[in-house]
């Protein structure tokens, strides 16, 4: 199957003192459904189309995996996170050696495209997302002063993501592409479990256990402390992934009647002028 698809790939070389190579599809692979934004069923069609693409990306499209790495489990080197002056927490935490599981089960519930500026609004659902890593932390969570380092996991059930993406259309090889320029997300969670070992630098295993029990009993408040970490991780990850996905696949394959960017922005700037 990949062999057939490879035929549709072209190599595009740009020499600017260094050589940069960009590969992209010039034939629509069968797993992508084409939709017309001017048709009334566009959003439903687009939802299936994006899910189809995502499913292949999760299975592994070499051109994307090469630069992004595997999607599930996904590795991240480091996350730094500080939160000051909130009601529930004042914390500085560094997470390293992170492994994030769950992106392989992403479900696109809705994928809307704005007909004016071609920005997106997507509803994505993950049955479960789990983050494992090492933490180093100073501060307080739910008024409990913490000082320690060790292993952490945060496991989220029923993660609903509302993703908004800004895009800028551009032309490449006779096709129109999406440049995904910004991603913002809002999340809702069904349930959260966690464990931080070696809290208080291992001074008391018993206090460590009761503290973790307390976090799990009060998981909504615990999650609020870590919400910026989860949201930030999702925003960075999705921006990176979507940029790579849509730099190899022309926007024309998803939205057959997408306007040429020169016409779209040309017309707009003439309207403004
Ligand atoms: C949504 O789209 C899918 C595939 O394109 C199709 O099978 C389904 O019937 C559509 N549903 C509605 C409600 O139009
Ligand atoms: C986290 O890392 C930053 C910069 O690398 C550092 O300034 C901060 O003190 C670290 N926090 C903890 C709790 O180790
Ligand atoms: C995409 O947008 C970024 C800025 O967000 C810009 O640096 C980059 O050159 C753009 N890429 C293309 C191919 O237009």
From TrEMBL:
<protein>
    <submittedName>
        <fullName>Circadian clock-controlled protein</fullName>
    </submittedName>
</protein>
<comment type="similarity">
    <text>Belongs to the TO family.</text>
</comment>
<dbReference type="InterPro" id="IPR010562">
    <property type="entry name" value="Haemolymph_juvenile_hormone-bd"/>
</dbReference>
<dbReference type="GO" id="GO:0007623">
    <property type="term" value="P:circadian rhythm"/>
</dbReference>
<dbReference type="GO" id="GO:0005615">
    <property type="term" value="C:extracellular space"/>
</dbReference>
<dbReference type="InterPro" id="IPR038606">
    <property type="entry name" value="To_sf"/>
</dbReference>
<keyword id="KW-0732">Signal</keyword>
<feature type="signal peptide">
    <location>
        <begin position="1"/>
        <end position="21"/>
    </location>
</feature>
<keyword id="KW-0090">Biological rhythms</keyword>
<dbReference type="Pfam" id="PF06585">
    <property type="entry name" value="JHBP"/>
</dbReference>
């Amino acid at each position: 199957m990949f062999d057939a698809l490879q035929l549709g790939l072209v190599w595009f070389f740009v020499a600017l003192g260094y050589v940069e190579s960009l590969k992209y599809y010039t034939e629509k692979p069968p797993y992508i459904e084409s939709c017309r934004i001017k048709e009334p069923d566009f959003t439903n069609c687009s939802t299936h189309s994006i899910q189809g693409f995502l499913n292949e990306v999760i299975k592994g499209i070499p051109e994307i995996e090469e630069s992004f790495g595997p999607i599930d489990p996904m590795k991240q080197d480091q996350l730094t996170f500080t939160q000051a002056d909130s009601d529930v927490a004042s914390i500085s935490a560094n997470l390293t050696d992170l492994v994030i599981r769950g992106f392989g089960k992403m479900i696109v519930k809705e994928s809307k495209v704005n007909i004016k500026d071609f920005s997106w609004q997507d509803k994505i659902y993950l049955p479960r997302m789990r983050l494992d890593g090492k933490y180093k932390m100073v501060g307080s969570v739910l008024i409990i002063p913490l000082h320690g380092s060790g292993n952490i996991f945060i496991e989220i059930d029923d993660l609903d993501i509302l993703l908004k993406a800004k895009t800028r259309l551009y032309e490449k090889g006779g096709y129109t592409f999406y440049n995904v320029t910004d991603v913002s997300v809002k999340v809702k969670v069904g349930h959260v479990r966690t464990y931080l070992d070696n809290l208080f630098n291992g001074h008391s295993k018993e206090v460590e256990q009761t503290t973790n029990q307390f976090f799990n009993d009060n998981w909504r408040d615990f999650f609020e402390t870590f919400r910026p970490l989860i949201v930030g991780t999702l925003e960075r990850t999705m921006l990176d992934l979507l940029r790579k996905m849509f730099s190899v696949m022309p926007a024309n394959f998803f939205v057959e009647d997408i306007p040429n960017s020169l016409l779209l922005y040309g017309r707009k700037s003439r309207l403004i002028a």
